[in-house]
Amino acid sequence: MKGMTLIVKTMTALLIGFILLFGAYVILTGHLSPGGGFAGGVICAAGLLLVVLAFGADIVRERMGHRMALLWETLGAIGFLAIAALGFITGTFFAHFVRHGAGFRLFTGGSILYSNLAIGLKVAAGLFGAFLMLAAFRETERTDRGEDGGD
Amino acid sequence: MLHAVLPFVLCLVLFIIGLYAISVKKNLIKVIVGVIIIHNSVNLFLVLIGYRVPATGSAIAPIITPQMGRDAMDVRELLSHSVDPVPQALVLTSIVIGLAVVALMVVMALRLHQKYGTFDLTEISKLKG
Amino acid sequence: MSETLLILYGVICFMLVAALVAVETRDLLSSVLCLGAVGFGLAVVDLIVGAPDLALTQVVVEIFAVVLLIRTVVAREDTTREFIRDTPHVAAMGAMIMGILIGAYVCFQQLTPFGDPPMVMGASYMRAAEEAGATNLVTAVLLDFRAYDTLGEATVIFAAIMGCYALLRTRGRKEEHEGHDADS
């Protein structure tokens, strides 16, 4: 698969930074405004999906293969568990291990911010990896049938 | 009385449409479509259960804004006007799980298509490997 | 009957029509696109009933799901004959729908009326919002008051993604251990 036309590639190269920035914003301010780890993670995954569709899976796989995506997803899951386990410092499982106080600033709400980061990483990497595997699968299927790639 | 249950009845109709697709259609993609419609109908039902028509004014989202009070965390307006946050929190995770399950179903359908060359369920059950 | 309720009913009816078209059309691509319409209708309902978190998530998830499904159905033809109308099948369908309708009637007797939830836990979570420290109550419920639930959901997502990886392995066991004839 060679990817799409030049117009799509140029626009993707321009927009992908903003999409990932918006995803990071939604993850980071999940405890203050609408959003959170799940929504922001899916936004980041959708941005990476745009890159896969526009440039083709091969170019993306050179930078970040599905094994790397699996590694990041596992890191996110373990990070969430670790944040939960850090609650033993002050009390029980899932207790806040830091006390930021409450308010409308970024560093408020105890461990919620870090949990959001871990969940966002996990969701983004997991969905992106699954889609990358799916793209690779379509390619092998095409070559099996002897067709030429190119949607 | 009618408005007390009518939105839930519409959710039920959506659920039955999805169930119809699952039980009658013989195409794997149509079955996946039915599962997603059922998923959407259940999410819709849970969101509607948490909705509240306050005595005065209109309902607001369960988010505290700085305009609500002088001190940092004023929840009085939230208590009188906000919708229920608990079903929303449950549905939020359910939506993302639905996406992961859709990916899993699509992958299974593609594997079946690779093995049997068709999405037709009757053909697949006839061929049996 | 207020304006909000009218808009709500309109959007839900739009979802119903889109779902019917998605189920009944012969073209798989149209079916998938109408499914996307159902999801976007759900996002609009979320906005109307005061759930911006859900609307945000639903829009992006729907885009992702529709792209996945389009990549699956594109260049594939629908050749099914879905007109099996023998008597046992129709009878089973009728019995199932009657059962669901009777169960729904009983449930609707017990259901709290629309627009007036009891909000027992919701109100107590709101009073304890300062303790959690998050101004977004949905995130506070998700990651503080009911964090065990979120841990379970994260596990389910992990399992589903692992299933995708396991089903999509292009390099099979046969290639890795050359000589052993894998029977799967």
Shape of chain C: extended
Element string of chain A (H = helix, E = strand): HHHHH
* Average pLDDT number of chain C: 84
How can the largest sheet of chain A be summarized? none
Q: What structural category characterises the helix and strand content of chain A?
A: mainly alpha
Number of helices of chain C: 9
Described by the principal axes of the CA atoms, the overall outline of chain A is: elongated
Write the H/E string of chain C, N to C: HHHHHHHHH
Q: How many helices of chain A in DSSP terms?
A: 5
How far is it from the N-terminal to the C-terminal residue of chain C, by CA?
A: 61 Å
> Distance between the terminal alpha carbons of chain A, to the nearest Å?
8 Å
Report the structural category of chain C: mainly alpha
Low-confidence stretches of chain A: 147-151
How many whole angstroms does the radius of gyration of chain A measure? 19 Å
Largest sheet of chain C: none
pLDDT below 50 for ≥5 consecutive residues: which ranges of chain C?
179-184
Q: What quaternary form is this?
A: heterotrimer
Helix content of chain C: over 70%
Count all strands of chain C and give the number: 0
Strand content of chain A: under 5%
How many strands in all of chain A? Answer: 0
Blueprint (SSEs and pairs):
The complex is a heterotrimer of chains A (about 150), B (about 130) and C (about 180).
Chain A: H1 6-28, H2 37-55, H3 57-63, H4 66-86, H5 112-145
Helix pairs in contact in A: 1-2, 2-3, 2-5, 4-5
Chain B: H1 2-24, H2 28-49, H3 76-81, H4 85-116, H5 121-127
Chain C: H1 3-24, H2 28-48, H3 52-73, H4 87-110, H5 120-127, H6 129-132, H7 137-145, H8 147-167, H9 173-176
Helix pairs in contact in C: 1-2, 2-3, 7-8
Describe the structure.
The complex is a heterotrimer of chains A (151), B (129) and C (184). Chain A has 151 residues and is mainly alpha-helical. Chain A has one domain (6-145). Chain A is built from 5 helices and no strands. Chain A has helices at residues 6-28, 37-55, 57-63, 66-86, 112-145. In chain A, helix 4 (66-86) runs antiparallel to helix 5 (112-145). The N and C termini of chain A lie close together (8 Å). The relative contact order of chain A is 0.18. In chain B, helix 1 runs antiparallel to helix 2. Chain B has 5 helices and no strands. The radius of gyration of chain B is 21 Å and the shape is elongated. By secondary structure, chain C is mostly helical. Chain C has 9 helices and no strands. Chain C has helices at 3-24, 28-48, 52-73, 87-110, 120-127, 129-132, 137-145, 147-167, 173-176. In chain C, helix 2 packs antiparallel against helix 3 (52-73) and helix 7 packs across helix 8. Chain C is extended and about 60 Å long. Chain C starts with a helix and ends in an 8-residue tail after the last helix. Chains in contact: A-B, A-C, B-C. At the B-C interface, helix 1, helix 2 and helix 4 of B face helix 1, helix 2, helix 3, helix 4 and helix 5 of C.
